[in-house]
Amino acid sequence: MDALAGLLDGPRARGAFLLRMVMEPPWSVRIEDRAPLSLLCMTAGEAWIMPDDDDPVLLRPGDVAIARGPGPYTAADEVTRAPTALIGPGGSCHTLQGEPLAEAMHLGVRSWGNDPHGSATMLVGTYQMKGEVSARLLDALPQLLHLPADVWDCPLMPVLDDEISRDEPGQSVVLDRILDLVLIAVVRAWFSRPGAEAPAWYLAMGDPVVGRALRLLQDDPAHPWTVASLAAKCGVSRAGLARRFNDLVGEPPMAYLTGWRLALAADLLRDTDATVEAVARRVGYSGSFALSAAFKRVRGISPQEHRTGAALPERQQESR
Questions:
Q1: Do the beta carbons of residue 302 and residue 309 sit within 8 Å?
Q2: Is 191 helix (H, G, I), strand (E, B) or coil?
Q3: Pairing status of strand 120-127 against strand 37-44
Q4: Does residue 216 have a pLDDT over 90?
Q5: In the list 42, 104, 202, 239, which could disulfide-bond 59, CB 3.0-4.6 Å?
Q6: pLDDT reported for residue 12
Q7: What is the Rg, in whole angstroms, of the alpha carbon atoms belonging to the chain?
Q8: For 253-262, b where at least 16 C-beta lie within 10 A, e where not — what string?
Q9: According to DSSP H, which parts of the chain are helical?
Q10: How far is Cα 123 from Cα 24, in angstroms, rounded to an integer?
């Protein structure tokens, strides 16, 4: 399992919010959906993407951007254009005064905008929940990532454009998987740019020793790993692995393993009905007591509290 596969396998899109936004100037939309990540693909015309705390970016045809939440941003035809619509959690749409706009701007299956023949078209795919396994990846991305068309080429873009307006059985699952693939392609292209400042864990995967150690930990987190057993598998001394791993990844091997196990456990608690005991054994703990102790020490809450919190509607979580 490589770095991106390991980090993206768990938090795959599940019923992602996807739409084709078709607009004709003048237009401006404020996005306050608090989503952890949104993928923005420009297929026609131009659009400015403007985070509150970052520089605006102009998207042209073929460009792609990732907006990392939960901070809000504005999309518009001009930088100075005042918003006339607001998108909230779950894709709710209304004016800034609270009047509903969903029906007025509905243009068909997963299509929305102010003009069905508008000159600007953008595909939007939004991950609704923050997957715990992806936290390390999200932390490595800027608030607004932008790849111009001339530095990235993804054959999946036309596929997403074609599939997004289809209304067939199982279509949401098809779109989720396409969105995942496009996201992986974008992140891979971003980290592969000349002069890109890829995170330490990403670069470490290319090291013949530390990369092997990371793959071993990610592929089999339930194994009773020690630094000594991991070093033996990698063909180096215990001290040599510990020093090299810490230098490249930024933390000791066992600390990385703990974080990986707890991230996997968090996803299992959120997405399955497995007992805490079953989750504990699946990710490498001797039982529910050991997992609970590690969970509380690192995350400050119990596994059951995490599960209960993940099941609450977003607004309830925000009010807690």
A1: no
A2: helix
A3: antiparallel
A4: yes
A5: 42
A6: 63
A7: 22
A8: beebbbebbb
A9: 3-9, 135-140, 156-163, 171-191, 200-204, 210-219, 227-234, 238-249, 253-271, 276-283, 288-299, 303-311, 314-319
A10: 15
76 or 6: which leads in pLDDT: 76
Tokens (6 digits) for 176: 């989720």
**What is the SS3 assignment for 174?**
helix
In the prediction, which pLDDT does 255 show?
A: 94
**In 10 A of CB 308, how many CB atoms?**
12
In tens, the pLDDT along 43-66 reads 999 999 999 988 999 999 999 999
**Given the structure tokens 């805490």, which residue do they identify?**
276
pTM of the model: 0.74
Identity of the amino acid at 5: A
**Helix-strand-coil split of the chain, %, nearest 5:** 45, 20, 40
Per-residue tokens: 308 = 């209960």
Q: Which helix (H) or strand (E) holds 17?
A: strand 17-23
The arithmetic mean of pLDDT across residues 144-160, rounded, is 88
What pLDDT was estimated at residue 35?
87
The DSSP letter of residue 98 is S
Please give the Cα distance from 215 to 137 (Å, whole number): 16
> Can you tell me whether residue 106 is helix, strand or coil?
strand
At 130, the pLDDT band (50, 70, 90 cuts) reads low
Confidence of residue 198 (pLDDT cuts 50, 70, 90): confident
Instruction: State the Cα–Cα distance between residues 78 and 61, nearest whole angstrom.
Output: 16
Whole-angstrom distance, CA of residue 146 vs CA of residue 186: 9
Helix, strand counts (H, E) of the chain = 13, 13
Identify the pLDDT of residue 7.
Answer: 53
**What whole-number distance in Å separates Cα of residue 38 and Cα of residue 183?**
9
**Is the model more confident about 263 or about 201?**
263
Checking if the pLDDT of 319 tops 60, the result is no
